[in-house]
Amino acid sequence: MTGPLFGSPAPATRAAQGLELVRIVTALLILIHGVYRALTGGVVPFGDWLDGLGFPQGVAWATAVTALEWIGPVLILTRRWVFWVCLAHMGVLALGLVLVHLPFGWFVVGAGRNGVEYSVLLLTCLAATAWAYRPTRAPA
Question: Are 43 and 62 in contact, with CB atoms under 8 Å apart?
Fold first, then answer.
C-alpha cells in the first residue's frame, strides 16, 4: 500500500537487508536461549515441568526442544531449511506462549511480568523469515 497514510515502501534492497538482520538476530536469540538452558542444567527441570503438565516423556521433549534451539538457529544462520526450521520454532513458541506466558497477560515488563509480547515478537520475526524463505514451486 502506498499513499499519504502509509508512505512509500522501503526500497527492495534495503527491505531484503532488513529482513536478513531480523533472520540473524532471531536465530541468535533462540540459540542463546537453548545454550543457556543446557549449560545451566535447565533441561531436566524443564522436562519435569512438562511431566507435571501431563506431557509424556517430559525430559525427552525438553531435550528435543533444547536440541532444536541449538541446531535450528545454526540452520537458519546458514540458510538451510529456513522455512521448515522457522515453522518448527513457531510451533514450540506458540505452545510456550499458551502454556507459560498467556496466563500473565500481554506485558513482559512494566505493566506486567512474563506476558506474551516477546513471544509474539519472536513469532512475527519467524513468520516473516519463513515467508521470505518459503519453498517455491517450479512452473508447470
Answer: yes
pTM for this model (two decimals): 0.92
**Cα separation of 15 and 136, whole Å?**
20
Interior angle at CA 74, CA 70 and CA 64, nearest 5? 30
Determine what percent of the chain falls in helix, strand and coil, rounding each to the nearest 5. 70, 0, 30
DSSP for 59-77 reads HHHHHHHHHHHHHHHHHHH
Which one-letter DSSP state was computed for residue 132?
A: H
What is the C-alpha to C-alpha distance for residues 9 and 54, in angstroms, rounded to an integer? Answer: 47
- Pairs from 114-122 (Cβ < 8 Å, separation ≥ 24): 119/93, 122/26, 122/29, 122/30, 122/93
Q: What is the pLDDT of residues 17-66, one digit of tens each?
A: 999 999 999 999 999 999 999 999 999 999 999 999 999 999 999 999 99
Handedness of CA 19, 81, 96, 24 (dihedral sign): negative
**Separation of alpha carbons 88 and 72, rounded Å:** 9
